């Protein structure tokens, strides 16, 4: 039995189709990432799985319990950390934790070992009001409250949005320890770099799953040669590259542009020659390995164009 099973789940808000035929399995004891931009449908799917919202169609279960029929049983065995900080701002750190433990019929003392690694980092501030905490400390408190009753499955909806890079790294280290304790972690994020930290991922766009598998499997399916191109001025270079014959797509990635070519019409040397002749300065072109974000942009473009390669 999988920890989570989803079959052909649909959900609409009026005329807006939020989810369209979503099917996924999440295995017990893994970190599964739902990767996609804002508006992809991640939060809607999480709310259905945590029994806060009813799907229009399809089936879903958590640890064998049906999300429609067995919502009371599901709520006892899951932890849920929504995207927005939803704890009581006027209560202290300790009071929030005690409240959530009481709701689930347990105590902080009884389950302290479950949250010790996380809670110990904010325990020195246990008398501080939750609303006065930093983003990283709020994150740790929310996670402690979601774990205090020993859930079997932990749902984390964009838990690292709005926190600094150090807190993001520390958070994912904590998730690794939580997974090692036997808890299944289902996490959504708009950050493509976090996909590599998951055991398996599903890429989501416009309410659809556009690919799924291990990060390595998804990257291995990237069908084109990918080049990193530099030159000054960068913005004008981006427009120039997108106009070249043989360039399938081109996107800006920090200090370089990622250029996809199929190898039949243009090569790295050709591009270097053309941008140099066009007057760009400090030019550099090199072949690179694609990442999850490159794969996502390619797949999202194909989906938007009904299977045709996106030229952009």
Describe this protein's structure:
- The chain has 312 residues and is of the alpha/beta class.
- The protein has 2 domains: 210 residues, P-loop containing nucleotide triphosphate hydrolases (Rossmann fold), CATH 3.40.50; 85 residues, Alpha-Beta Plaits, CATH 3.30.70.100.
- It has 10 helices and 14 strands.
- A 6-stranded mixed β-sheet has the order 6-7-8-3-9-10, with helices on both faces. Strands 2-1-4-5 form a 4-stranded antiparallel β-sheet, covered by helices on one side.
- Helix 6 links the parallel strand 7 and strand 8.
- Helix 3 packs parallel to helix 5.
- The chain is globular.
- The relative contact order is 0.13.
Q: Write down the secondary-structure element order.
A: EEEHEEHEHHHEHEEEHEHEEHEH
- The side-by-side strand order for the widest beta sheet comes to 6-7-8-3-9-10
Q: What is the CATH first-level class name of the largest domain? A: Alpha Beta
Largest sheet: 6 strands, mixed
Are there runs of 5+ residues with pLDDT below 50, and where? Answer: 307-312
Number of strands: 14
Count of structural domains: 2
Distance between the termini: 43 Å
Radius of gyration: 23 Å
Mean pLDDT: 91
- Spell out the CATH superfamily of the largest domain: P-loop containing nucleotide triphosphate hydrolases
Under CATH, the topology of the largest domain can be stated as: Rossmann fold
User: What would you call the shape?
Assistant: globular
The number of distinct helices, counting runs of at least 4 residues, comes to: 10
CATH architecture of the largest domain: 3-Layer(aba) Sandwich
Strand coverage percent: 25-35%
Structural class: alpha/beta
């Amino acid at each position: 039995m999988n920890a989570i099973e989803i079959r052909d789940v649909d959900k609409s808000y009026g005329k807006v189709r939020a989810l369209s035929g979503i099917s996924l399995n999440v295995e017990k004891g893994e970190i599964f990432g739902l990767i996609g931009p804002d508006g992809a449908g991640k939060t809607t799917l999480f709310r259905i799985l945590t029994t806060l919202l009813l799907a229009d169609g399809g089936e879903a279960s958590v640890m064998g319990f049906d999300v429609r029929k067995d919502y009371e049983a599901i709520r006892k065995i899951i932890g849920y950390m929504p995207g927005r900080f939803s704890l009581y701002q006027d209560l202290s750190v300790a009071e929030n934790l005690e409240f959530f433990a009481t709701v689930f019929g347990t105590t902080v003392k009884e389950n302290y070992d479950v949250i010790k690694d996380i809670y110990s980092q904010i325990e020195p501030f246990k008398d501080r009001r939750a609303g006065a905490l930093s983003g990283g400390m709020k994150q740790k408190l929310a996670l402690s409250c979601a774990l205090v009753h020993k859930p079997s499955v932990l749902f984390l909806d964009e838990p690292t949005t709005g926190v600094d890079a150090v807190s993001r790294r520390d958070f994912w280290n904590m998730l690794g320890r939580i997974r090692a304790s036997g808890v299944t972690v289902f996490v959504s994020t708009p950050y493509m770099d976090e996909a590599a930290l998951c055991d398996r991922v599903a890429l989501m766009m416009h309410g659809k799953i556009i690919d799924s598998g291990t990060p390595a499997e998804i990257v291995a399916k990237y069908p084109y040669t990918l080049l990193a191109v530099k030159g000054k001025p960068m913005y004008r270079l981006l427009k120039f590259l997108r106009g070249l014959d043989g360039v399938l797509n081109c996107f800006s990635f920090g200090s370089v542009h990622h250029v996809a070519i199929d190898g039949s019409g243009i090569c790295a040397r050709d591009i270097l020659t053309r941008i140099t002749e066009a007057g760009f300065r400090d030019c550099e072109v090199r072949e690179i390995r694609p990442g999850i974000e490159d794969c996502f942009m390619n797949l999202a473009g194909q989906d938007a164009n009904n299977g045709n390669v996106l030229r952009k």
